[in-house]
Amino acid sequence: MQSAIYPGTFDPPTLGHLNVIQRAAGRFDRLVVAIGENPSKVTPSFSLEERVQFFKEITDQLPNIAICSFKGLLVDFAQAQKIDIIIRAIRTIFDFEYETLQAQMNRQLGAVETFYLVVDEKYRLISSTLVREIASHGKRLHGFVPAEIEEAVFQRLYHNQT
Ligand code: COA
Fold first, then answer.
1. Can you give the residue range of the structural domain that contains 53?
2. Using a 6 Å cutoff on CB, does residue 36 contact ligand 1?
3. Closest ligand 1 atom to the C-alpha of 41?
4. For the whole prediction, is pTM greater than 0.85?
5. Is 122 one of the annotated active-site residues of the chain?
6. Reduced to 3 states, what is the DSSP secondary structure of residue 18?
């Protein structure tokens, strides 16, 4: 059985993330969506529990997805899960540079391989940071986050600012 891990901060999950999950889930027997922490980012707007719940709602129809959170190094989590393939998404050349450094370091640290998926053109401009910014100014998130969680994400981000 071939499994892979799709890790990220997912603060919050976007349609771009969901698109990657759908595509990766079609290529592997099992896909573990792993919500982690990026120490160089600000404190997340959504708790780990909230992000896990968001993913449960949006991946409800996909049978081969597991949702997990992890702390510490990604390679340690991958080893604990006995999975040696990481999926990452590439939007731009800047992602490629950054992801390549991460992939090389992860390979050195834990013998995991990183597979890149090039994001669908429709989602190239989306990021979780932009989603947070748009909602904080009162604009709705249609077309940016999955419909199932759109209202909850908007309400939380908008009311946190007001
Ligand atoms: N569509 C749209 N946007 C996408 C996307 C897609 N398909 N894929 C990524 N993005 C965006 C995300 O929304 C995010 O935007 P943001 O910066 O505005 O939040 C950005 O691209 C990439 O962030 P993310 O995918 O969350 O990854 P990350 O670089 O924050 O890394 C971890 C998160 C958890 C994978 C990483 O920090 C990690 O491995 N942490 C554990 C510690 C560790 O092992 N470090 C590595 C040592 S080499």
1. 3-123
2. yes
3. 30
4. yes
5. no
6. helix
Atom number in ligand 1 closest to CA 101: 48
User: What CATH number does the domain containing 112 carry?
Assistant: 3.40.50.620
The whole-angstrom separation of Cα 139 and Cα 38 is: 27
Cβ contacts of 55-60, under 8 Å, gap ≥ 24: 55/10, 55/13, 57/146, 57/148, 57/149, 58/13, 58/18, 58/146, 58/148, 58/149, 59/18, 59/21, 59/33, 60/148
8 CA → ligand 1 middle, Å: 4
- pLDDT tens sequence across 73-90: 999 999 999 999 999 999
Answer yes or no: are the C-beta atoms of 112 and 84 closer than 8 Å: yes
At 113, list the tokens. 């391989």
Q: What separation in Å is there between the alpha carbon of 137 and the centre of ligand 1?
A: 24
**DSSP label of 123:** G
